[in-house]
Recover the amino acids of this structure.
């Protein structure tokens, strides 16, 4: 059998040799499940930085060639085209979503800077508990830091809103054909950048550049951990120790897959559709209450989920760390509330021509903002009484706070969308919004760069984290810009052409 033309002979031999090792011991006690997974992963990921870099160098060269070539077949790869698209303005009432998206990613970055950015947290040193206490005990920023995971709820509302508007534009199409096109386009949007990032992050390139990232984020992956990311099921991992922060992509894709059920009913029978959607949101709240009661975690409100593999962990330790919390944090049936709220908002903005005069618009916005702030700071009793357990207050808060916060975000968006006077946002937010997906993928490696910053490692106040955040954000968006120009945009042009030819 001849070796693959896409790989050098020595690489093909190495892959066959490793796969052979797996086949030799299908049931041997010598190799446990983890060892088999490592062999499978090693069979398909390069061993050296040089081997891993060659495909990336080849692709970058092709993009550069497409930028200077006169051949039409390569124009989709052009950097100039990508830059033009990045700078294009939409002039739509939905431009306001760009600001919310930017705020959400900053909040997520702040969360991870205060966790994975600290060596003592990565290595479970005694100073980690003192640092967390200092964050939570701050009278102004404590709740803002502790509840920074609510940035995910903003993303879910925006995702549901845009999913609804995308579906409803062609709601008259046959359901199955429309569903197939709807999901395929979403996959083509998310998969290429994520696949390439996982290829870089899980291989020797990241291990050489950021060894601590590899040891705490990738070492526990194995074959099945990597597979969960490329199949958008990482939120169903038993523990989020394999690049766990990417769990959101799996959740988003799964919610997209079921969204057409609600949207189809909303389109054909709005009243029944709204009843079903509201009932599902309420049911999700009860499930959350059930989980936190059963696991005794209502006093934690599913915050502070560690996305890392700690040194010397065993199965029982992992189970105790994530018991109940991970289920509430990542599963579709406990996280669908904010997405479905966004879905309803998308339906209303698409089907209604309502215009709000300035006074009601301001009242709705300010009232929603007030509810959002109160929801964030309502976690403080849990910090004041960390051993209170499953009190009625803690149980109710854990059950409803994410959906209540999402309702407040939806209210602010509705106030801005339906206001009488259209006010365009600054063009910089449109650019940043287009880079947000890649910034989400890349911000965690950037956070690990700050492991070498003494100022962050000795921080004792949320103010210190806020001072570091602009630097984390700047580096993350610069990395995202490179990824956008060389990965997302050119591949997006190719997949868009492919989808159009297939009639999707």
């Amino acid at each position: 059998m001849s070796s693959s033309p896409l790989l050098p002979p020595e690489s093909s031999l190495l892959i066959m040799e490793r796969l052979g090792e797996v086949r030799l011991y299908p049931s041997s006690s010598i190799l446990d499940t983890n060892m088999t997974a490592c062999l499978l992963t090693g069979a398909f990921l390069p061993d050296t930085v040089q081997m891993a870099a060659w495909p990336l160098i080849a692709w970058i060269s092709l993009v550069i060639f497409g930028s200077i070539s006169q051949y039409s077949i390569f124009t989709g790869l052009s950097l100039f085209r990508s830059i033009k698209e990045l700078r294009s303005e939409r002039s739509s009432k939905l431009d306001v979503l760009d600001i919310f998206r930017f705020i959400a990613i900053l909040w997520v970055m702040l969360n991870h800077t205060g966790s994975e950015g600290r060596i003592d947290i990565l290595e479970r040193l005694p100073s980690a508990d003192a640092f967390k206490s200092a964050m939570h005990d701050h009278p102004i920023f404590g709740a803002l830091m502790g509840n920074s995971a609510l940035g995910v709820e903003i993303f879910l509302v925006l995702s549901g809103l845009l999913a609804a508007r995308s579906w409803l534009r062609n709601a008259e199409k046959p359901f199955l054909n429309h569903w197939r096109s709807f999901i395929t386009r979403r996959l083509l949007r998310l998969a290429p950048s994520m696949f390439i990032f996982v290829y870089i992050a899980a291989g020797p390139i990241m291990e050489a550049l950021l060894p601590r990232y590899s040891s705490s984020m990738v070492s526990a992956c194995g074959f099945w951990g990597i597979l969960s990311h490329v199949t958008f099921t990482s939120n169903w991992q038993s523990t989020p120790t394999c690049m766990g922060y990417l769990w959101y992509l799996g959740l988003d894709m799964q919610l997209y897959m079921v969204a057409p059920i609600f949207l189809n009913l909303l389109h054909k029978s709005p009243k029944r559709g709204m009843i079903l959607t509201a009932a599902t949101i309420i049911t999700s709240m009860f499930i959350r209450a059930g989980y936190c009661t059963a696991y005794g975690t209502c006093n934690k409100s599913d915050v502070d989920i560690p996305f890392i593999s700690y040194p010397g962990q065993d199965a029982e330790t992992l189970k105790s760390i994530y018991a109940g919390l991970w289920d509430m944090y990542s599963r579709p049936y406990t996280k669908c509330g904010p997405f479905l709220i966004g879905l309803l908002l998308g339906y209303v903005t698409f089907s209604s021509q309502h215009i709000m005069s300035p006074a009601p618009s301001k009242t709705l916005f300010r009232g929603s903002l007030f509810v959002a702030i109160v929801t964030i700071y309502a976690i403080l009793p849990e910090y004041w009484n960390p051993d209170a357990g499953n009190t009625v207050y803690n149980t109710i808060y854990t059950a409803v706070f994410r959906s209540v916060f999402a309702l407040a975000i939806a209210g602010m968006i509705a106030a801005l969308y339906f206001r009488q006077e259209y006010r365009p946002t600054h063009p910089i937010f449109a650019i940043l919004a287009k880079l947000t997906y890649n910034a989400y993928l890349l911000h965690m490696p950037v956070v690990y760069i700050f492991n070498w910053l003494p100022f962050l490692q000795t921080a004792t106040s949320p103010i210190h984290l806020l001072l570091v955040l602009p630097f984390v954000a700047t580096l993350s968006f610069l990395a995202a810009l490179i990824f956008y120009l060389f990965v997302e945009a050119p591949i997006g042009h190719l997949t868009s052409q492919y989808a159009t030819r297939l009639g999707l």
